[in-house]
Amino acid sequence: MLDKTKIGHQFQPFTIEVEKGRLKFFAKAIGETNPIYFDEQAAIKAGHKSILAPPTFAFTIDLDGPELLPVLKLLDMDIGKVLHGAQEFEYMANIYAGDNITVAVSIKDMFDKKGGALEFVVLETRFCNQDDALVATALNTLVYRN
């Protein structure tokens, strides 16, 4: 069983710069056709300060930390038994090319089902820009198969 005393644990925050090229690549990869996601002039003309990050881009920011899924090490989880169960986003503001986003992840909840055969770890991620404004939150549910 996973150590439920780790609920509330906060991992070391990190900051990354959102690069234009990366936004353009991501938009292309997901099949986005709206030019505000890859053409800076179109984004500015539409009232944005720069290229806008597509809605699910925040997930990729979370993967840029110094360690991929540090929760695995903290809870001594075998990555071969981990499934991605769910992902939710809430946006308070836009993320733009040139923003410096600080990512702060914590363990929000842990629970089990099927007599402990399946354990769930809910991670909450907060994304704040260079002005310390909260621009998005995400909930990521990992499923651990025992």
Level-1 CATH class name: Alpha Beta
Q: Strands across the major sheet, in which order?
A: 1-3-4-5-2
Q: Oligomer, anyone?
A: single chain
The CATH superfamily is identified as Hotdog Thioesterase
Number of helices: 4
User: Based on DSSP secondary structure assignment, what is the total number of beta strands?
Assistant: 5
Question: How many domains, as an integer?
Answer: 1
- What is the distance, rounded to the nearest whole angstrom, between the alpha carbons of the first and last residues? 8 Å
User: In the CATH hierarchy, what is the architecture at level 2?
Assistant: Roll
Low-confidence stretches: none
Report on the biggest sheet. Answer: 5 strands, antiparallel
Name the overall outline. elongated
Strand content: 25-35%
Query: According to CATH, what is the topology?
Result: Thiol Ester Dehydrase, Chain A
Descriptors:
Thiol Ester Dehydrase, Chain A, 146 residues, alpha+beta, 18% helix, 5-stranded antiparallel sheet
What would your notes on this structure say?
With 146 residues, the protein is of the alpha+beta class. The protein has a single domain, classed as Hotdog Thioesterase (Thiol Ester Dehydrase, Chain A, Roll). It has four helices and five strands; from the N terminus they run βααααββββ. It has a five-stranded antiparallel β-sheet with strand order 1-3-4-5-2. The protein is elongated and about 55 Å long. The mean pLDDT is 96.
